[in-house]
Amino acid sequence: MALLDGNALAGRLDDLLGWDATGSEVRCTHCGLRGLLATAAVYASAMGAVVRCRSCDAVLLTVVDAPDGRSWLGMPGLSAVELRRG
Prior knowledge:
Elements: E1 2-5, H1 10-17, E2 25-28, E3 34-36, E4 41-45, E5 48-52, E6 59-65, E7 71-74, E8 78-81
Antiparallel strand pairs: 1-4, 2-3, 2-8, 4-5, 5-6, 6-7
């Protein structure tokens, strides 16, 4: 499993959400750290990715890709995500 930063998810999140969320500010539910999703720690594999808080290592977000083309997006450790318009 490779350790990357949140920028590694830019294309994948754009595919899933219709926009690149890596430039959005997020807040960790566990420690309250606020920062850009791009700065989070991403552990990536062929099955998907686990995004962890750089401060407390809590799981912020998960992306699971199934062989049949379906994907699951979980955000168990995010208490807020900035949504930008335009």
